[in-house]
Amino acid sequence: MRVAFKPTSTIGKKQNTVTRDKVETEMIARGRHDPCVVPRAVPMVEAMVALVLVDQLMAQYAQCHLFPINPELQEPLHTEQPQNAAAL
């Protein structure tokens, strides 16, 4: 399976933070500062794949097992023969 991610966007509003010297300050990010999303990517992809597979499994079960085909209610398929087929 191949997976691609859109780069995460930078939050452009003022945020309260603390420096390494334990001084409270405000931070405003400008430009592109993309964090590494790789550690979170694997669990997110696994969870989304699991959701999609269970959804499809439930749809398949509902279609095939909850509404079984009753042959007595099915109309036969009428296949039309070409008019020249009798001549061949």
TrEMBL record:
<keyword id="KW-0028">Amino-acid biosynthesis</keyword>
<dbReference type="InterPro" id="IPR035904">
    <property type="entry name" value="Chorismate_synth_AroC_sf"/>
</dbReference>
<comment type="similarity">
    <text>Belongs to the chorismate synthase family.</text>
</comment>
<comment type="pathway">
    <text>Metabolic intermediate biosynthesis; chorismate biosynthesis; chorismate from D-erythrose 4-phosphate and phosphoenolpyruvate: step 7/7.</text>
</comment>
<keyword id="KW-0456">Lyase</keyword>
<protein>
    <recommendedName>
        <fullName>chorismate synthase</fullName>
        <ecNumber>4.2.3.5</ecNumber>
    </recommendedName>
</protein>
<dbReference type="Pfam" id="PF01264">
    <property type="entry name" value="Chorismate_synt"/>
</dbReference>
<dbReference type="InterPro" id="IPR020541">
    <property type="entry name" value="Chorismate_synthase_CS"/>
</dbReference>
<keyword id="KW-0057">Aromatic amino acid biosynthesis</keyword>
<dbReference type="InterPro" id="IPR000453">
    <property type="entry name" value="Chorismate_synth"/>
</dbReference>
